[in-house]
Amino acid sequence: MKHLKSILFAVALVGMAGFVGAQSKVAHINTQELIKAMPEMKTAQADLEALSKTYQTELKSLGDEYQKKVQLYDSEAPTKTQEENNARIKEVQTMQQSIQEYQAKAQQDLQKKEFDLLKPITEKAKDAILKVARTQGFDYVLDSSQTVTIMADGKDLLEDVKKSLGIL
């Protein structure tokens, strides 16, 4: 009997939740598509590409210098003493380690720069979505770029938000 009451209570709660859910207005938007369409994103991507090319150029230069030194030391090794060759091996290993450290730092710098550039863009998009959703009376907005949407009959806010940002 107690078990039956629990089941009936659970069914009643599910029914009430369904009723409350039916009262809520739900919309959806593809935030990735919105952010991709924002002019600020194109500028950020160009800045990131320029910084990436700078790091790639420097890494290539360091790599070329490293290769030349290795080839030179390999060709001269038979004419050098064991002590000189050992010192040269250490020098080359240090050089290789420096290149790896530079590469890691460059990767970190790129990630930080990307975060710094994208944060204000995503904040602007979020603020615009909230403004449009509240203006149109929506209780929930689903991000269709991050969730699996089986059916999207709700209002798509993408065009309205683009219009509010002046992107059309």
Distance between the termini: 62 Å
CATH class membership: Alpha Beta
**The number of domains:** 1
CATH hierarchy: architecture: 2-Layer Sandwich
Average pLDDT confidence is 85
Instruction: Tell me the series of helices and strands, N- to C-terminal.
Output: HEHHHEEH
- Percentage of β-strand residues: 5-15%
The largest pleated sheet is described as:
3 strands, parallel
Count of DSSP H/I helices: 5
The Cα radius of gyration reads: 29 Å
At CATH level 3, the topology is Protein Binding, DinI Protein, Chain A
Shape: rod-shaped
Summing up helix and strand content along with how strands pair, one would put the structural category as: mainly alpha
Low-pLDDT regions: 1-21
Q: Strand tally, please?
A: 3
Overall helicity: over 70%
Give the strand order of the largest sheet, numbering strands 1, 2, ... along the chain. Answer: 2-1-3
How would you name the CATH homologous superfamily?
Answer: Skp domain
